[in-house]
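User: Can you recover a sequence for this backbone? Please restate the input before giving your answer.

Assistant: Of course. Working from this structure:
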């Protein structure tokens, strides 16, 4: 049984294994990406039903541009079609869509679709659905440092008074609660330059199944595991 009082507020997902899933079934990699996109919709709904406030999906990293151009192009088109098809449902259910990562060199057509989706759901107060696109954790920290440096040079802030929570305001995720739980599928046990700052105290769960097979029951297994862990945030337990 799940404890409704100990549900993670924010779950971040590294959606790994689309290609492997397709290969095991004798299908092209594109079929894996297509099925993976469908799973996002299912997981958003399941997370909302559990009471999760924020879900973040690692859709495309800054390193993924090294993949074959045909595959990258296909992924970009899938993302556009996903937004076109699903944003109405997110809006209807009072969910807010956000994207984090660098805009360039994401295709203009996808940038425009993201902008429309964010604007359409801007006032919604329900679950936040975040897409990490052209995202890299180290690049995010560098960009945040640049933003802070500019404010120091302009006299807007005092460098000597910088606190951890102050620096967080310069990150792509400013104003978003840090993840309580990171889920990575396909049995891989690494965070791959994802949310390096934000995952400092997150619990991590590595599922053996590939992302296209990660459904509601798998999500519940991850949350159950999360609820069994004692989070001390660097302190001592009560015993």
């Amino acid at each position: 049984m799940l404890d409704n009082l100990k549900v993670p507020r924010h779950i971040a997902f590294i959606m790994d294994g689309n290609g492997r899933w397709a290969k095991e079934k004798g299908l092209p990699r594109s079929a894996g990406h297509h099925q993976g996109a469908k799973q996002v919709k299912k997981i958003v709904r399941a997370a909302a039903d559990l009471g999760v406030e924020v879900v973040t999906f690692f859709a495309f990293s800054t390193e993924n541009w090294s993949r074959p151009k045909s595959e990258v192009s296909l992924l970009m088109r899938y993302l556009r079609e996903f937004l076109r098809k699903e944003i109405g449902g997110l809006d209807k259910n009072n969910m807010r869509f956000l994207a984090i990562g660098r805009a360039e060199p994401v295709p203009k057509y996808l940038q425009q679709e993201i902008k429309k989706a964010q604007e359409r759901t801007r006032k919604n107060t329900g679950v936040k659905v975040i897409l990490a696109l052209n995202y890299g954790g180290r690049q995010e920290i560098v960009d945040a440092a640049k933003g802070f440096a500019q404010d120091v040079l302009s006299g807007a802030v005092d460098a000597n008074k910088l606190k951890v929570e102050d620096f967080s305001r310069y990150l792509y995720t400013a104003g978003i609660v840090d993840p309580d739980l990171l889920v990575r599928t396909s049995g891989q046990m690494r965070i791959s330059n994802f949310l390096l700052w934000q995952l400092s105290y997150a619990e991590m769960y590595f599922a053996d199944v590939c992302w296209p097979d990660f459904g509601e029951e798998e999500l519940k297994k991850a949350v159950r595991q999360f609820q069994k862990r004692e989070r001390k945030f660097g302190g001592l337990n009560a015993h």
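That completes the design. DSSP finds seven helices and six strands in the chain.
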